[in-house]
Amino acid sequence: MTFIAIVDGAITTVALPSIARQFDLTTAALDGVVVVYPVCLAMAIPASAWLVERFGGKRVLLTALVGFLVSSALCGSAAGLGVLVVYRAVQGLSAGLLLPASAALLFGTFTPAEQVRVSRYMIVPQQIAPAAAPILGGLLVDHLSWRWVFYVNVPVGLPAVVFGALFLAGHHGGRPGRFDLTGLLLSAAALGTVMFGVCEGPNRGWSSAAVVTALALGAVLLTAAVVQQLRVGEPLLKLRLFADRLFRDTNLLNLVGLIPILGAMYLGPLFLQQAQGRTASESGLATFPEAFGVLLTVQVVGVLYARIGPRIIVGCGMTGVCAVLLAFATCDADTGPWTFRAYMFLLGLAMGCFFIPTTVASLATVDRSDLPQATTLNTVVRQTGGALAPAMVTTALVLGTPAAAAADPPVSAYQHAYLVLAALAAVTAVFAFTLPDGPARAAARGGTATAPARPARFRGRGQPVDS
Predict the structure, then answer these.
(1) Residues of the chain whose pLDDT is less than 50?
(2) Residue 463 is inside which H or E element, if any?
């Protein structure tokens, strides 16, 4: 289910030139089609925890997925830019509920020891999706039309809806307390405004009035939201969870560590297409080996997690990311595609040490009743890190490019960007080695770090079976 949302967030950019031709617009005029998705996604996330607690993870997940599929079909049928942007907004709102609800269901159903094993399989769509999106998008646009970039979600998603309705387990909700409307308005406005500023900064320039205003207003709203959420008895976002050091530190790792990881994934195609003049298809095939590296490493991580803990795994992984990024910084216009593929595979091997340990460890000391809140906060942090990655890359490219060559960054600018990402990876690695992971190792071994009640097992049509 999350595969669809991840692909859609990455595949749309491939279709922009074709959409521009359809509506007789410039590609730059379609910026709203791309930006509205992460902005609305960020705005919907704060409400997800309350909705999961009130209606149950299964209901929220399936409702969000149906909304996503309907809006996808509407996007494909859009007759103009205005309605396309509106339908993309609905897509983003649906995805903002889909991602936290799926995580809450996963981590609420399995114990910490089981979560590591399950995550080894869940990581497959999460890694294949962004790697396959450019290739899939190119094929659909070239052989069908840009509308199929959206239509393709429907035949892929409908079986997931049916399967989820029949077999997904989930409670029927409860009484989470009064809905914090003030908290929703403040947090949604803050996250949406900040996301707009971060996404538009590289395009409009960080000194442009729109970006400066968005970031300044977002900072004020974010401060107000934090103060309000810490004062109310039943907050929409349970920020007090950050008082737990393991939860706080793993989220900091996600926030900072995702910038060099996703930044490298964003920078690679730019280097191949702009600095080396390769086609989009050649670029996609050159970056795809990263997914194989990740999938190989996560199988090993799943075995080692309980034995050596996330601290060493994440620290070594980010050290590896730093080393590979330094190797990328040596690439130039003459670097062959197989060399680039080898570096991407090595990057995937190192990245595979990051995703599962940080996610599973972040929830090791969280009470089971707080899992919807914790997964929501995790999603906020990951989305923020994901938005900062391309912003950091673009800024580094601009700073490394002479003013006279602003439209065509030289190879040295890309090398400079890789060095900036390597420095961030090094900082993340150092911080990772300070992670207090004793409770995480105990929970993975079946210990009682937080003494959570073991959830019921489920089979068939969601009927509980006593353990």
Answers:
(1) 448-467
(2) strand 463-465
